[in-house]
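Hypothesis: this fold can be encoded by more than one sequence.
Test: take the structure tokens below, design a sequence, compare later.
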């Protein structure tokens, strides 16, 4: 099912498409536009090569189309000799198609009670092609010789008669013939700059229906990605209330983020619909707090890591409901973190037992184990899936080769206990949240610290986490002061401080498809932050940090 976003809301369009990209005429039009563009841009040699190759292919398509017209008429008229000749000369799957033609002739003979002709036809035509028949079909055809007609023949009892069966046979041939009966227009003119015009229309549509629209003309510098205008969150859109203890972690279900999941010290995971922001379900089963949540890129599996020493896997069913599928008991003590491989086939986890474990989701077995000197607080994969990255209370970040299990790099320069790690989408930068009031942005290519981001508080709570967001242009971080802190990609200055929570903010998650920032905190709530344009008479006022009101003091 395809999902599109219209003004920020998800709309399922099923299999409906404005045109069939496999339609021969559509293919021809696309090639013609490519030829025109190459010519307009001066790629003359490439244009001529493409044009020559396309002319040969289009000629073949036209020939097949003409043959399909003749074949259709032959089948409808019962001119089996002509139909057989076209199939023998024109199609690579001629044995299967010949069997279909011979079967049609045979059934018509049975229907007319011409049993002698039918017997001869069965032995001379159908018997040599018995290998292409479906299981038991040839046997059932032979059985018809002992019946009064097709209505007594088991699987052929519902045969619709000669006329209806011929129409159905034509449709069967058209489906496998890869030809269309529409008329070809070799002289159709391609409007000037047609390819550029269509691309401009596509981008204009994306801009029109993006969740946020720029105030001035947008600068589109690539066509390889869909257009997104990411307006920095500056206001709390709403608070989600449903947990009965502090909320430790968040994750959006899949890259599209149709659901938001929150894990809490009340031992539950709540699933929220991101279109209505209503509570969809409460996932129960853990015996202690939820430390970390993770989702596969497809959004079909959710993993929850808990202080009860287990990781639960929840599977999304056809009704968009999560149900418990499996429990992994592979750690001793709290499981602090969990993450999926980019392919969704493997799972990495870390916890109080100082171990990092890599599991195969097909066998549900651990096949690699790594270790730190102290508890492992966070784990992730690089975007390519070749490295496991782990942060620990031993004040180090380690990089493990996922295939061999070898530690290939350790980062430890001027770091305190690590509370989270997050890799940029291109794999060149690593964000390390350290319990000395510092978020470090590492350049992994040059193996050096690019920026030290400060202004938040991260000293005592388990665990304050920080994330990249908005295509890695912004760093979002939780904080013990009850605010969400934001820095730009250069680290030159803090972009914003979002206040609203009462108590430490533990986790933050940005979702580009929904264009929303989510945060969770000690005040038992999840807050959603979005961009709200200021009115003309509204002036900027300094954001005030709230008084810290701890309703449920931190246990550990």
């Amino acid at each position: 099912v395809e999902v599109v976003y219209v003004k920020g809301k998800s709309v399922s369009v099923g299999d409906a498409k404005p045109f069939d990209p496999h339609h021969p005429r559509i293919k021809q039009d696309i090639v013609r536009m490519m030829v025109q563009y190459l010519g307009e841009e001066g790629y003359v040699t490439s244009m001529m090569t493409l044009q020559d190759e396309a002319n040969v292919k289009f000629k073949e398509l036209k020939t097949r189309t003409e043959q399909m017209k003749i074949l259709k008429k032959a089948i409808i008229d019962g001119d089996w000799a002509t139909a057989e000749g076209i199939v023998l000369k024109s199609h690579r799957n001629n044995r299967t198609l010949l069997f279909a033609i011979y079967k049609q002739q045979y059934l018509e003979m049975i229907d007319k009670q011409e049993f002698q002709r039918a017997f001869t036809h069965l032995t001379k035509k159908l018997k040599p092609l018995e290998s292409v028949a479906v299981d038991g079909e040839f046997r059932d055809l032979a059985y018809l010789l002992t019946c009064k007609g097709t209505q007594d023949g088991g699987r052929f009892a519902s045969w619709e008669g000669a006329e209806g069966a011929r129409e159905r046979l034509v449709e069967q041939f058209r489906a496998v013939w890869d030809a269309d009966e529409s008329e070809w227009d070799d002289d159709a003119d391609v409007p000037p700059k047609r390819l550029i015009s269509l691309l401009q229309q596509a981008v204009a549509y994306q801009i029109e229906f993006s969740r946020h629209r720029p105030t001035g003309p947008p600068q589109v510098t690539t066509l390889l990605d869909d257009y997104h205008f990411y307006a920095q969150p500056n206001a709390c859109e709403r608070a989600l209330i449903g947990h009965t203890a502090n909320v430790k972690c968040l994750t959006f279900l899949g890259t599209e983020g149709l659901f938001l999941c929150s894990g809490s010290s009340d031992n539950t995971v709540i699933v929220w619909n991101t279109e209505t922001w209503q509570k969809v379900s409460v996932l129960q089963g853990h015996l202690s707090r939820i430390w970390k949540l993770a989702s596969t890129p497809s959004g079909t599996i959710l993993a929850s890591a808990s202080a009860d020493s287990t990781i639960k896997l929840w599977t999304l069913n056809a009704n968009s409901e999560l149900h418990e599928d499996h429990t992994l008991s592979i750690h001793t003590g709290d499981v602090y973190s969990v993450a999926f491989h980019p392919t969704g086939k493997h799972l990495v986890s870390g916890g109080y037992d100082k171990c990092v474990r890599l599991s195969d989701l097909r066998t549900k077995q651990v096949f690699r184990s790594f270790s730190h000197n102290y508890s492992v607080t966070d784990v992730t994969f690089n975007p390519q899936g070749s490295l496991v990255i782990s942060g620990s209370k031993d004040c180090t970040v380690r990089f493990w080769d996922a295939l061999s299990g070898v530690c290939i790099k350790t980062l430890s320069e001027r770091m305190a206990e690590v509370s989270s790690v997050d890799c940029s989408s291109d794999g060149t930068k690593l964000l390390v949240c350290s319990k000395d009031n510092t978020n470090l942005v590492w350049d992994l290519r040059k193996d050096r610290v690019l920026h030290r981001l400060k202004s938040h508080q991260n000293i005592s709570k388990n665990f304050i986490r920080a994330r990249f967001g908005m295509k890695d242009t912004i760093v979002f971080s939780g904080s013990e002061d009850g605010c969400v802190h934001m820095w730009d990609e250069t680290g030159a200055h803090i972009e914003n401080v979002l206040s609203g929570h009462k108590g430490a903010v533990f986790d933050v998650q940005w979702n580009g498809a929904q264009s929303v920032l989510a945060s969770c905190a000690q005040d038992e709530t999840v807050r959603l932050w979005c961009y709200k344009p200021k009115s003309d008479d509204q002036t900027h006022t300094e954001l005030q940090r709230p008084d810290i009101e701890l309703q449920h003091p931190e246990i550990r």
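Confidence is low (pLDDT under 50) at residues 1-15, 536-556. The CA atoms of residues 311 and 328 lie 5 Å apart.
Hypothesis status: open.
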